[in-house]
Design brief:
Largest sheet: 11 strands, mixed
Shape: elongated
Order of helices and strands: EHEHEEEEHHEHEHHEEHEHHHHEHEE
CATH topology of the largest domain: TIM Barrel
Distance between the termini: 34 Å
Number of helices: 13
Length: about 325
């Protein structure tokens, strides 16, 4: 079973929850070859409970996991900030995760995060697996915490973003910390954007569906960490696309509509095909008159066409700007 231990169900925690975007993510996770993922959404993301409510509606129970119609198995979870600096992952049943999230309601803003020790005190009142997310990422201080507190963790996260940036450093430091604490190291992509699925994963010989099964197999070391040869490219591409989509949203555009283009791309092009497609976003300046806006869109589209790009989406904002997304086909496939 190919499992990603660290994923997100939204593009960004301050953006509104979109069922279309989340459906797309889970579809792409399966298309990328994953059998299961841990949905470790930020504990202070907007509409945290709505995300899990939707997931419950779209899935059926399988042990402690949730099984989607496409066969993807999801272990509910959460990623929580600590006062010292750093992020802690927790995995449990959906009811447990939702209850823990509610109990953390007063600690979701900077300056109010719980210290690591108090957060672990809370988590240890529940049946959850607890891990340190990307322990050596800049701004975090997890490795500096008291050893007796770190030994309360169940696992460490070898993170796809860090591996893509400097694999040797990420593996050396994370595995060394795991050896000192006698804690297993697993892996997660940390993706908010589907291109990053499959950059790294944890592969089990068996198919755990409960927390106890997952805990036993992790403790026994009955798994392998696998890293894609294209991990660095995947993470970089996902980062660029995430920034572009967030900018579209900030300008008042429909980033989900721009990404999905009515849903045609996800049905007609494989994951590997999409990796070979280059996108470019063009913002047209203030044009309050519809006729002028249409002329500018046509002029820009014709200019981009001469450069080998085709228009896939056009959105106007409340401030009378136009956001155009163009696509260049650089591989042979359904988009040709």
């Amino acid at each position: 079973m190919k499992l990603d231990f660290h994923t997100h169900g939204k593009l960004a925690k301050r953006l509104p929850f979109s069922t279309q975007y989340t459906d797309w993510l889970f579809g792409e996770a399966k298309a990328a070859g994953l059998d299961a993922l841990c949905l470790t959404e930020h504990f202070n993301t907007l509409q945290f409970d709505e995300l899990y409510g939707y997931l419950l509606h779209q899935s059926k129970r399988e042990g402690d996991a949730l099984l989607l119609e496409n066969g993807l198995r999801i272990f509910p979870g959460m990623e929580t900030d600590i006062a010292e600096g750093g992020h802690i992952l927790s995995l449990g049943t959906v009811e447990t995760i939702l209850e823990l999230n509610q109990r953390l309601a007063a600690h979701k803003q900077p300056g109010h995060f719980l210290p690591f020790e108090k957060l672990l005190d809370l988590f240890r009142k529940y049946d959850v697996l607890v891990g340190a997310a990307h322990p050596y990422r800049a701004g975090g201080h997890i490795p500096e915490l008291p050893r007796e507190q770190l030994e309360r963790l169940d696992f460490l996260d070898l993170n796809g973003k860090d591996v893509a940036e400097d694999r040797e450093r990420a593996e050396r430091l994370t595995r060394s910390l795991g050896e000192r604490l006698h804690k297993p190291v697993v892996s997660g992509s940390d993706t908010h954007q589907a291109v990053q699925y499959g950059c790294i994963w944890t592969e089990f010989a068996e198919k755990p569906a409960t927390l106890d099964e997952l805990r036993r197999q992790i403790s026994a070391g009955a798994y392998q960490i696998m890293v894609s040869e294209q991990a660095a490219f995947q993470v970089k591409t996902a980062g660029i696309l995430k920034r572009a989509l967030k900018e579209i949203h900030a300008l008042g555009g429909d980033y989900v509509g721009v990404l999905l283009g009515g849903g045609k791309e996800q049905d007609s092009c494989s994951f590997s095909d999409r990796l070979a497609v280059a996108y470019q976003t063009v913002v047209i300046d203030y044009s309050p008159k519809a006729g002028e806006m249409a002329d500018r869109i046509q002029l820009t589209a014709n200019e981009m066409s001469r450069k080998g790009f085709e228009l896939v989406s056009a959105t106007t904002t409340g401030s009378a700007k136009g956001i155009l997304v163009f696509r260049e086909k650089v591989c042979n496939g359904p988009f040709s």
